[in-house]
Design brief:
With 323 residues, the protein is an alpha/beta fold. It folds into 2 domains: 144 residues, Rossmann fold (3-Layer(aba) Sandwich), CATH 3.40.50.1370; 158 residues, Aspartate/ornithine carbamoyltransferase (Rossmann fold, 3-Layer(aba) Sandwich). The chain contains 11 helices and 9 strands. The strands form 2 sheets. A 5-stranded parallel sheet has the order 7-6-5-8-9, covered by helices on one side. It has a 4-stranded parallel sheet with strand order 2-1-3-4, sandwiched between helices. The radius of gyration is 19 Å and the shape is globular. It binds aspartic acid.
């Protein structure tokens, strides 16, 4: 069992959305709005002055990595950045994962970790003696900071995180962003999510069973004709190539429903927003980008930096300094 936030973020690991209550999420979103002011008005900030955050990324990332790096720097902190330690560090000499974590915690105040295997953020939190771990994506498992950014994006548009209807499509089986967003929305009351995927890429049975016990209503569909006309948001995610055992397996599974102007016209509605955690590969036709409903290259991206600024300040106990 991971430690619940329970109103107090200081020194806590952030491994999964199941540590959060609605109040905890609201606290991050509220602080993110203040961070937006700091970032967009280019107000010099010293909130994290003297703090160092290590970014250890065992798996390719540009957005999440860049977003964490920028978040710390926006607040006057510094980063130690280790990309692909398997190739460039003592991991290459055979050093254990636990030792790598213990070495790097000596250099910093928090570790942001991305890893291709489910459960590694938790393993890191057990290995670390002194500093909190922030999960920046562990295989097909969780991606809590992406979800906080997605929740902020939804909240900005609808002013609530309950009583919403959404469609999540693509690689429902392997997408950690879909898994974490489902978890995030299940904390709030009366949300209904349609999961659109081929039979091969359906949500795992144990995940489905887990959500049956929560307040979220999940409806699995395989045809766009079953998309509800009243959806508040669509959340599309690419087929996660790196999670397939072989290129052959990936090729067999990779076909998903792309959002084209025709598709949007037929199944969409005027008030919805279109989201994608990116990179978009086969998910959304670039012709959609100029549509005002398309938030994926606008607020959804920027919100990622604001919520990471907020979260890191809370974990390092610096949030009181923010006016
Ligand atoms: N960037 C997101 C992630 O790290 C989504 C994706 O890669 O498809 O999971």
């Amino acid at each position: 069992m991971t430690t619940l936030i329970n109103g107090n973020f200081k020194s806590k690991d952030i491994l999964s959305l199941d540590q959060f209550s609605p109040k905890d999420i609201e606290k991050v979103l509220k602080l993110s709005r203040k961070m937006k002011v700091i970032a967009t008005k280019a107000r010099p900030s010293k909130i994290l002055e003297g703090n160092i955050v290590a970014l250890i990324f065992y798996e390719p990332s540009s957005r999440t990595f860049g977003s964490f790096s920028a978040s710390v720097k926006q607040l006057g902190g510094q980063t130690v950045e280790i990309i692909n330690p398997k190739e460039f560090s003592s991991v290459n000499k055979g050093e254990s994962f636990e030792d790598t974590i213990r070495v790097f915690e000596s250099y910093c105040d928090a570790i942001v970790l991305r890893h291709p295997q489910i459960g590694t953020a938790k393993a890191a939190s057990e290995a670390a003696f002194f500093v909190p771990i922030i999960n920046a994506g562990d295989g097909a498992g969780d991606h809590p900071t992406q979800t906080l950014q997605d929740l902020l994006t939804i909240y900005e548009k609808f002013g609530k995180l309950d009583n919403l209807t959404g469609v999540m499509a693509g690689d429902v089986l392997n997408s950690r962003t879909i898994h974490s967003l489902l978890q995030g929305l299940s904390i709030f009351k009366n949300n209904t999510i349609y999961l659109l995927s081929s039979n091969k890429l359906r949500l795992a049975k144990n995940d489905l069973a887990k959500y049956k016990k929560t307040d979220i209503k999940i409806i699995e569909i395989t045809k766009p004709d079953d998309i509800p006309s009243n959806a508040n948001f669509w959340y599309w995610n690419r087929v996660q190539k790196e999670r397939f055992a072989s290129t052959e397996e990936y090729e067999k599974a990779k076909k998903i429903f792309t959002i084209t102007p025709e598709f949007l016209k037929k199944y969409g509605n005027k008030n919805m927003i279109l989201m994608d955690p990116l990179p978009r590969i086969g998910t959304i036709d670039p012709q959609i980008d100029s549509d005002p409903r398309a938030v994926y290259l606008r607020s959804q991206i920027r919100n990622g930096m604001y919520i990471r600024m907020a979260l890191i300040s809370l974990i390092l106990g610096k949030d009181k300094k923010i006016k």
